[in-house]
Amino acid sequence: LELDTAGTPQRNFCVRVEQLCTCTREQLGQNMLCFLHHPEEELRRKQDPSLLHTLCTGSYLDVRKTVHWFYRFVRVAWSLLPQSCHWRLTLQPSGRSCKFQLSKDKESFMVEMIFGVQQGDSDIFVGSQPTEVGIPSTTWLETYAVAEAKFFRHISRQAPHDSWHCKCLQLLTHILTGVGLSSYTLKTVVMHLLNTIPLTQWRRRDFQQRLMDILKYLHCSLETKQLNHFIIGNERLPMEISLPSDFQVAEPLNLFQHLATNPDAHTKARHEYICLLHR
Q: Which parts of the sequence belong to the Mab-21-like HhH/H2TH-like domain (predicted)?
């Protein structure tokens, strides 16, 4: 993985792919030509195109090529499955993810697949998730979704069986629809509070107080223009969450840094918070 920050707080990477010599396998009798040491003409004549040419642009893994390749794979594989006799698969256009719709009679649901590359043995990945227009197709965005999912699983194991922490998040996320504040901001606030408020205080009887705590934390973060990323620079994560070594010494990343440098964005965010309160 090659880091390409481009001056933004979002950590972006390029995934460099290198071919390995397979001459030793060929000598062992395996029917394989070495893409490094055989002439290109012979390779074209005797071998199918390598995945390097199919999935990469130059030496870098290409998001759009990967999506296109997987679309073709799904289309062929689906026709071989018995479910294809009863369900209809419709592939949806998408540049950085694989979206398809499954429908049968009046039933229908959407599936979106995000591709990712793991950073070492950690729970941090770089992913193909959709982003702003104009980002190169060889750019992969760092994602913390796996680490965050492990945190919520850890909380679920530790919390009482009647904990309502997920219902708090679900309700406020639903209320946020159409407001403008991102659901990831809300998720970050909830994770911070789960790390500080005893889990025995997230039961149904505590529901209203916890909602007030979440809104108060969000309000304070907006006023101070400071909301630390939950994973980067957090020293209080469960031991089961595996992070790259540089994460353990990193300074906390402020998700509201743009509010400190853009007064209009700060005014807009405060207005969105007021709209949230009146829902």
A: 180-232
Mean pLDDT of the chain: 87
Q: Sketch out the chain's domains with CATH numbers.
A: 145-279 (1.10.1410.40)
For 132, list phi and psi in degrees, rounded to 5: -65, 155
Token duo for residue 277: 């309160």
Q: Could you tell me the end-to-end alpha-carbon distance of the chain, in angstroms, rounded to an integer?
A: 44
Upper half-sphere CA count for residue 60 (Cβ side, 13 Å): 15
What does the block give as tokens for 14?
């390029």
> Which string of DSSP letters, residue by residue, matches the chain?
-EE--TTSSS-EEE-B------HHHHHTT-S---TTTS-HHHHHHHSPPPHHHHHEETTEE-HHHHHHHHHHHHHHHHHTSGGGGT-EEEEEP-SSSEEEEEEETTEEEEEEE--EEE-TTSS-EEE----STT--TTEEEEE-HHHHHHHHHHHHHHS-TTB-HHHHHHHHHHHHTTTSS-HHHHHHHHHHHHTTS-GGG-BGGGHHHHHHHHHHHHHHHHHHT--B-SSTT-TT--TTS---HHHHTPPPPBTTHHHHH-HHHHHHHHHHHHHHHT-
Per-residue model confidence as pLDDT tens digits over 94-144: 888 999 999 998 899 999 999 999 999 999 999 998 776 678 899 999 999
Quote the pLDDT of residue 226.
96
Q: How many CB atoms are closer than 10 A to CB 12?
A: 18
The rounded percent of the chain whose pLDDT value lies above 90 is: 58
Query: In sequence order, what DSSP letters do the residues of 209-246 get, joined into one string?
Result: HHHHHHHHHHHHHHHHT--B-SSTT-TT--TTS---HH
